[in-house]
Amino acid sequence: MTDTLAAFYTLHRDLPREGPGEAADVAWAAQAAGLKARAEIADVGCGPGGDVAALLQAAPQGHVTALDKTEHYVQAARALWQADPRVTVLQADMARIMNPYDMIWCAGAVYFLGITEALKMWRKSLRAGGAVAFSEPCWFTDNPSSEAQAVWAEYPQMTNAAGIAQRVTDAGFGVVATRKLSDAAWEAYYGPLEARIAALRPQADAALQTVLGEAEAEAAAWRKHRDSFGYLLTVARPR
Could you give the count of Cα atoms lying within 13 Å of 103 in the half-sphere of its Cβ? Predict the structure, then answer.
């Protein structure tokens, strides 16, 4: 593991979530998808399990299978949910979902696969009438500032709402509904992250100082340019 990657995991270890989101997003997606109380849900790229409680609330008599490839996220999610029989936490690749589900939930991680590619992979794991709900970085303006573009320079595939919808269509799915993630959803991520930055900074080595500075700059850029970019939550269903 490189010093930079180790520093990244030091910063992100024990955070309640690994990206923007709030319980209201899950509730909205569940309603849009017509989710039933006994639904079987896959939470793919689950991180430390920050959305599991909201998914259980959406399907209180159902079951959530949460999976992630990163071991310490899996350990964190298991520590929270191992006593609940309604939850199974797996260390697994979200590109290889094996069981059938009524909804596949993917908060901020679909970009690892690509929207079209992910939906095509996941289609076989959707029960009849099932849906995929995913959040994806999105431009909300046709002319983002250079600073905003710099934040997403490592993700050149980033597009606008129409571009996301086209990628959904290209996978043979249709868009059921979309929702822009709220400021509260972003603060639910950046608030704990900034508290951890402050706690780590006094004893941080050079590699960690660099990672802390990058994370701080990312949060500042979002607050300054939140009208230009954010996450779009999309519920999609096979055609």
Answer: 31
Q: Which two tokens stand for residue 147?
A: 């600073």
Give tens-digit pLDDT for 33-43: 999 999 999 99
Tokens of 85: 């029989």
40: Cβ–Cβ under 8 A, 6 or more apart, which residues? 59, 62, 63, 65, 99, 100, 101, 102, 127
What domains, with CATH codes, occur in the chain? 17-187+228-238 (3.40.50.150)
Q: Which run of H or E residues covers position 47?
A: none
Q: Which of 35, 60, 226 is nearest to 133 (CA)?
A: 35
DSSP state of 202: G
Q: How far is CA 22 from CA 29, 55, 201, in A?
A: 11, 11, 27
Q: Judge whether 130 and 97 are in contact, CB under 8 Å.
A: no
Q: For the segment 131-168, what is each residue's pLDDT rounded down to a tens digit?
A: 999 999 999 999 999 989 988 998 999 999 999 999 99
- Put simply, whether the predicted model's pTM sits higher than 0.90 gets the answer yes
Alpha helices in 100-205 (DSSP H): 115-122, 146-151, 161-170, 183-200
User: Do the beta carbons of residue 174 and residue 132 sit within 8 Å?
Assistant: no
Q: Tell me the two tokens of residue 197.
A: 């930055």
